[in-house]
Amino acid sequence: MYVPSFYRWRPADSDGEASWEVSFDGAAMPVKRVWVDRLDPDDQPEEVIVPFAEVIQDRLGMEIMRGCTQGCRFCQAGYWYRPVREHDPEVALDRIERQVEQTGFEEVGLLSLSTADYSQVEPLVYNLSEKLSERRVSVSLPSLRADAFSVGLAEAVSSVRKSGFTFAPETGSDRLRRVINKTFTNADMVRAAEAAFSRGWNLIKVYAMIGLPTETDDDLEELARLAEDLLAAGRRAKGGGKVQIKVSVGCFVPKAWTPFQWQPYAGTDELQRRIDLLKGRFKRIRGARLTWSDPREGALESLLSRGGRELSATIERAHDLGAVFDGWHDHLDLDAWKQALADDGIDLAREIGERDLGATLPWDVIDAGVRKGYLKSEWRRAQREIETEDSKWGHCYRCGIPGDGEDTQLASATLPVIGEALGDDERPKVAAYNVRPEPRVPPPKSVRAQPEVYRRYRFTFSKTGDARWLSHRQVMDALERMLRAAQVPVRYTECFNPHVRLSMSAALSLGHEGHAELFDLDCTAPVRERQIERANQLLPEGLKITDARPLMPGAKSLGKTVAAARYRIGAPAEPTVWPADPNGLPAELREGVRRWQLLDDGSLEVELNARQTDGPMVTVRKLLPALGIDEHQAVR
Known about the structure:
Layout: E1 7-10, E2 19-22, E3 31-32, E4 60-63, E5 65-66, H1 76-80, E6 85-86, H2 89-103, E7 107-111, H3 121-132, E8 138-140, H4 151-157, E9 165-170, H5 174-179, H6 186-198, E10 203-210, H7 217-237, E11 244-251, H8 268-282, E12 288-292, H9 295-305, H10 311-320, H11 334-344, H12 348-351, E13 366-367, H13 372-383, H14 432-435, E14 455-463, H15 472-485, E15 502-504, E16 514-523, H16 529-538, E17 543-550, H17 558-561, E18 564-569, H18 587-590, E19 593-598, E20 604-609, H19 620-626, H20 631-635
Parallel strand pairs: 3-13, 4-7, 7-8, 9-10, 10-11, 11-12
Antiparallel strand pairs: 1-2, 5-6, 14-16, 14-17, 15-16, 18-20, 19-20
């Protein structure tokens, strides 16, 4: 355990260099990181929490591997989370199937630092795709390296949904890629992109960084040339058809416990110059789009990523000055940070500048497992553009993780192998594919045709309590998810991105309760009471399906059927009272009121026209101000 009060940081001064001191007898120095030797499926939750408000990754996530030994020299996680440990693919498959049934998610993400390096990735993805495609549930992978690209793998994950394909080359320069220890080439990327475009993809996303150590303007030019070559590959594969390349560049931020931890942040002015260079270059590339991050944000991230204890007061001061939710661009307040740094006498240029290789660093109190000497040797190899192979496949570089590779725990081949093997010349270059003879191309998949529509059902549901703060879109997503999980016999749209064929009635205003909201659903078989009961068990509190009735063939849609909306509005605050009739309203409102009734409890029940062909359409939002009710009273 790391107990901060047991250790004292002595900054560099005229008396000597910075250093750590132990202030409690018996405290270990440094504090060693610990990790589990094997991944136990019992440590993963049997059931998952399902959010009903939209979240960052609105899908079911399943960890299949922990740790990465690719050795990308900028990546903190790759050094911190060693050694590699993998989950059993059969266990992962079983758990994913059950959680899809429980949650109704339409997408499953196989998560790790480098999913393509999971030794059983093809058997797991192929079997998952086979089992989930009938439910129109797709499988997604994090961004792939070009040397790990497999056409078979790509086709398996796109059997339900075919969206953009993502590569993370980090730079467009083969030379600079050798510096950071990513050893695939632009030619590998072009070859992979051409294969993807020829199999139906129209969009490829490319993630890159600027400001990496030793980067030059020539390296930036190479990124633009790579975009041009990818577009040319797509047009060849499409016979001149339309393709798109989206390139996103972020600013390199040096991180602790990496070979680049001593390197400086390139600086906001210099990085802005490089961004401007790229912007000018990409303007001349038709079909390519460039986006970029703010170098000022990168400077702040660089400060925080390598800061010492003295920054704790600065962080608190920035918060007091208004720095809250900085991750959201519209909330970022760089002036608050600038003032906080000035108040605490922090020299930003020095903090984000180059560190001495022999200096004691603020994070040296923690032993991540990887030796500092190994990180220094990796920096020297980076300067000489020398590759360090992935140690997972047998070559140990003595990085400091004990066991000479024996700590690596690969999964057993517990799932059946599906498909035909690729020839040697078609195999991806990643080391994993050289040590396991797994198939690379799944058999042709023909998703079974959906049954014909048995009947369209009209559902009635209520939205009360806290559920009234869910948006119309969030309610629709929750209903779709729970109908799938309850195994209601829904029919899906026939397109690249299938969804439940569900049609909602007019949106209820946010914050309003509804007792008789409607949606129509195409069903391929009769809807059973047990399915409605199951859906209600899964819906969030406040949402409840109250009725489901089959419609006659040819019945009008909700948009043509719903003629009015009935509202009950609570008694107003004294001394206001509701008028006895709507005659005092402006004509454009009065003509849209179909019913007006004062109730014994002082509330008002109104029926407002909701069909354009029947006259003016009136909303409660327009009605209440006309009755003298201000916005704050209306919310209550």
